[in-house]
Amino acid sequence: MSWTNLVIAGFFEVFWAATMKMSNGFSKLGFSILTILGMVLSFFFLSQATKHLNLSIAYPVWTGIGAVGSIIIGVIIFKDQLSIATWFFVLLLLIGIIGIKFTS
């Protein structure tokens, strides 16, 4: 269940990052509220995950999910353009996240 909570926390990390972008500097109330809700839920699920997972494992996985997920959302929804070199390093992040999971 701890890993499930951690993945959910990572999902909400991506969610709030995307809604923060959509809030246009917190000038759009609906997206601003969703951003804050996403932050609260992300931290809540991270706190639940760290009850049984070491912080040294949970935190980097949480931020990694947020980073990779935000990159993917940026490319798909916001039409961000990334170079091949950047995609290579995104792949390294993903490999690192998976490696931490399998070695913990």
From TrEMBL:
One of its GO terms (molecular function) is transmembrane transporter activity. The chain crosses the membrane at residues 29-47, 59-78, 84-103. It is found in: Cell membrane. It is a multi-pass membrane protein. SUPFAM superfamilies: Multidrug resistance efflux transporter EmrE. Coiled coil: none annotated. GO terms for cellular component: plasma membrane. Signal peptide: none annotated. Keywords: Cell membrane, Membrane, Transmembrane, Transmembrane helix, Transport. Belongs to the drug/metabolite transporter (DMT) superfamily. Small multidrug resistance (SMR) (TC 2.A.7.1) family. This is Quaternary ammonium compound-resistance protein SugE.
